[in-house]
Amino acid sequence: MRPVLDHPWNLSPAEAIALQLDLRKRVDCTDHPLRLGHVAGIDVGFEDGGRTTRAAVVVLDYPGLRLVEQAVARRPTDFPYVPGLLSFRELPAVLEALTRLTVVPDVILCDGQGIAHPRRFGIASHLGVLLDAPTIGVGKTRLCGRHEEPGNEKGAWAPLQDGGEIIGVVLRTRAGVKPVYVSIGHKLSLTSAIRIVLACTPRYRLPETIRQAHRLASQTN
DNA sequence: GCGACAG
DNA sequence: ATCTTGTCGC
Q1: Is the minimum distance from the CB of A129 to strand C below 7 Å?
Q2: Residue A72 and which of A50, A60, A62, A152 are 20 to 30 A apart at CA?
Q3: Is residue A209 predicted with pLDDT exceeding 80?
């Protein structure tokens, strides 16, 4: 699975913001014919006290959620962590890992926000636009926006709003646990994103895709 | 000027 | 994210 769109990565924070403002015009928040056979998850971890970025991607079959393929890529960390610019720090390694897949997933769940971002262009949207593929943002904490507390049952959710628009939802993936922040990444609707995240979360707080990718990305064996 | 701030 | 052991609770 290779990116269909390319652009420079050695940018200054100001240049990165300018690029986000341009690329965000390409984000598609509508559904497309989707036949879910394989779902992927991506996550990133760090080694050597942060000097090395380690990206992991796993592909599971759907709806069984059995591991079909996995890949890892390491690259020297070259961009600092700046809230709002996470994709410039993590995507280079993620793209390299994705290139090693033989199976092309139908949708990718990302550890981080989609359009629930100050400029509506979080890591999930950035990845989706580069691949021209459906992606979903699943964050463990909030980057921006306001919301009420969702009901305490699995599947309960509350809208995440910012600047008068709904940018995502706060979704309870399991009864009694801290909810996650779900937003559109690219090429699907928020309703579909919620449905897919719940279908990928049979037992734990986080979707199986992201859980397994996280295990691969941050375990220094 | 004072907070907030994905991973 | 990462540095780090045990411990509280179901």
Answers
A1: no
A2: A62
A3: yes
Dihedral sign for Cα atoms in the order A120, A124, A128, A133: negative
Q: For residues A155 and A134, is the Cβ–Cβ distance under 8 A? A: no
A179 touches strand C (CB under 7 A): no
- The predicted-structure confidence for A53-104, as pLDDT tens digits, reads as follows 999 999 999 999 999 999 999 999 999 999 999 999 999 999 999 999 999 9
CATH superfamily of the A13-217 domain: archaeoglobus fulgidus dsm 4304 superfamily (3.30.2170.10)
Q: What mean pLDDT value characterizes chain A?
A: 97
- Which of A106, A30, A101 minimizes the C-alpha distance to A63? A106
pLDDT at A221: 63
- Each domain of chain A, given as residue ranges in start order, spans 13-217
